[in-house]
């Protein structure tokens, strides 16, 4: 559900509430916003109505190929069970992150 007001998210920062080179956005059934934070190797979430985001997947500023890391995440999708799917470009994989998980599971690639 959209309204006529907006919030500006500062970019080009590794601060936990900001993003650098956002590539994709997804919105879940609860109106939470997810951003593929390409340069910071993570996915940020803004819960509905909140002004501050948080890192929910990936390790800030540390690209890699571990199950808790990304190497240039480019796309995000949230299914009806709140699983987060992330296209991890330079690791050539798609990872699924269950709700409240600290690691992802490679489902393709």
TrEMBL record:
Top-level taxon of origin: Eukaryota
NHL repeat positions: 18-49, 57-100
Record's keyword annotation contains Cytoplasm: no
The keyword Glycoprotein is annotated on this UniProt entry: yes
GO cellular component, one term: extracellular region
Keywords attached to this entry: Glycoprotein, Repeat, Signal
Protein name: NHL repeat containing protein
Lineage: Eukaryota, Metazoa, Spiralia, Gnathifera, Rotifera
């Amino acid at each position: 559900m959209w309204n006529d007001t907006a919030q500006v998210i500062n970019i080009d920062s590794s601060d936990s509430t900001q993003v650098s080179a956002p590539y994709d956005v997804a919105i879940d059934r609860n109106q939470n916003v997810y951003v593929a934070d390409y340069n910071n190797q993570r996915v940020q979430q803004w819960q509905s109505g909140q002004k501050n985001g948080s890192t929910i997947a990936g390790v800030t500023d540390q690209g890699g190929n571990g199950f808790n890391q990304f190497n240039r995440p480019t796309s995000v999708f949230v299914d009806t069970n709140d699983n987060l799917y992330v296209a991890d470009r330079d690791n050539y994989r798609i990872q699924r992150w269950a709700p409240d998980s600290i690691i992802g599971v490679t489902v393709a690639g």
